[in-house]
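Appendix B.2, paired examples.
Example (i):
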Amino acid sequence: IKQIIAEQLYDANFEGDLKLDEQIRSLTPTKALELIKNVFQGASKLLEKLGRANNLIKCVITSAANKPLSEELLECFSDHAKMTLNSQKDPEVSSLLSDTDFSRMMAESNDVVMTSVEIAQSQCIKILTLRQQKNSAVNERLDQNIHIKLSKLVEAFAVTCEKLTNKSSHPIRASLVGQSRELVKQFHQERLTNIKLLLENERWVVAEVPADFQRMVDNIVKNCSPSEVVARKGGKNKNNPPKSTLTFNGKQYIVTSTLLLVIKIVVEYCQCVVDIPVMSKDILTKTVENLKQFNEGTFHLVLKAGAIKNIGLKTITAKHLGIASQSLSVVLQLLPWVRSVFTAQLPRTQYLLLDQINILETDIQDHMNQIFSKLITIMGDVYRTSLQNWQPKPPTPSHAITIATRQTIKLHEALNSLLQPPEVQLVFRGVFCLFRKYFEEQLTKHGLMNSGSDRDPKRHGIVGAELSHFIDSVSYLECVGDSDDIFHDIGTR
């Protein structure tokens, strides 16, 4: 190992008189990876030779004890040699070794291999530790691609050691856990910061959807692996310009620039857990944390109107609420794929951790329901204000009903292009229920909430005309659903 390191460092031009450990810490990440690769491969070859020598020694010991050779010992011989060696055993010939001596010498031979493997692992761990120390002369940022290659080198070396010793190589694998944890922490912090910054500057306007993002989502729908989701097929295609909506599971969604980043980041987290499965538990928690930040940030900025202060929006409109709702809906669509990726990487004993995704789903859906309730409340305020001075007098439609009708149609125009049809219907059922509530308050105020013999035909005729105007005006609106059950007995008890 020292010889390999010396040869690797010979060509490096270090300034000053640096010690060996300082030279190793001063290597660039790429050069360090090359050094570790050469050391691991050199150590593996040496240990494999030692393993073959051990088998030969144990063959001699076994033969001296006049015992049959096991398949494990004979695996390095040809078929002809195996037959010859085993055919030479003669039960009539006395053994040169007692059973006690045989067992002792076999154990000593194995101990030589075991000790050699432990020493090799110890030396390799030292090199890894040097590279992980934070006082590196090159203040480098951990590189995920290099770390993945390093993980594969460590795993290959660990497998070699396990074949020789029949013992788990936990120490060499554990040596990378600290660096893996640091890498995941760095990876996570960068993405948390990116989403936070974008959210703080998000103006909640519709963004175009580049073809690459649509392709990623299409691959997610097909339940492709993370590497397949991000794989590019060919170069840029001028025939695939950006689109105004994102198609997800056959539905059209409007998106914001922040949501596009969220989709990209979710895919990156899923690729990260495939690349570093030993950190699957931490990566799952951090994936959920990032999505939770997006959900809570959206809640604060839109539903709680934080964007008015942050970026100077004059007000939070129904359009802003609709855009926020659709962004959250896309995240909900992503979660089943995220769950499937992590299920494949987590040990069965840790499947309970997937409940974090279930809790996140519930939180996002609750947030969306609050947005829908807010949209309904906005129209409730419009109805209460416009109808508070309503009088059962001609002409019809009255100014109050005209305003209520116009604002209802305006809300539909804003939401119909933003929300999914079932969501539009949900909102407008709530809206129509509030219209009924505030209109019946006015009927009660003017003594018109009955259908008995004391009805005033003229005034009730005006009521009927007002209702007909409103109902006829909103009945043609797309996706609002059948509202007959809401309006059919309005004004009666």
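Example (ii):
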Amino acid sequence: KQWYQRRVRAAIVFSFLPIVIILITNIWILWIAGQYTRKHTGQSVPSRSAVTIVACICWSFLLSWTPWVIIWVNTLRGAKVAPVFVTIAEHFVTINAVINPFIYTATNTSFRRFLMRFLKRRALWSAVKKQNISRATRDSAL
């Protein structure tokens, strides 16, 4: 029974340790942003979008990893977990790795403008490259 209690405590500690680290680092980032804002603009708080981004990132991490942690702790307790729930939890964890750029795009206008310019240039470059390849193929056929 004692080994079981140690495993459950370790599971809880190692599950919530990343959450605590993310929260602390993001609060630190907001604090630094507030100092920079205060120094350069005279305002006492960081921008609303910065707070929104940090809140969205923290919540997405928490919501993405919670199902996996619940399954992990229940497995350590000896409970049988249906494979479909494990698969769903794995997909949530994978989604967390992909969601951050979407959060930045949705909440930050300068990042959104940069991304649009980048994608347009990429599409333009792709079109030019295809045109050059088709022209080279056509010229070599003649």
